[in-house]
Amino acid sequence: MARFLSAYGTDLDPPGKQTRKMWEEDHRRHVFGKSCISVKLSTLNLDLYGNKAIAKFRPSYYADSLNLSSRKTLDLVKSGDRWVIVKESSGAG
Question: What does pTM read for this prediction?
């Protein structure tokens, strides 16, 4: 879980009115307790703007009896020698 969360920048803008702590707790609830999690990505589009990037793709998420697919957009910034997520949004389509 720590490795997953480290992909997100310290200045992450969580959706809605969530704090970073609330957002992390929400993600922990979705991950822990699952016997198997699989995520497949398709239709990836990546646009680079210097030290910023926007990634758009369709993840298909499978966990136990859960099966979800939607569009996802990630805003990334270069932090040192790695890219981190500073904003994410998702929706049907």
Answer: 0.81
Are 89 and 73 in contact by the 8 Å Cβ rule? The answer is yes
| Strand 52-63 to 66-69 pairing | antiparallel
At residue 27, the 3 state secondary structure works out as helix
Tokens coding 45: 């589009």
Place of tokens 């490795």: 3
Reported for 25-31, long-range contacts at CB under 8 A and 24+ positions apart, including other chains, are: 27/1, 28/1, 30/63, 31/1, 31/4
User: Is the CATH code 1.10.760.10 the one for domain 2-91?
Assistant: no
pLDDT in tens, 37-66: 888 999 999 999 999 999 999 988 888 777
Q: How far apart are CA 45 and CA 34, in angstroms?
A: 29
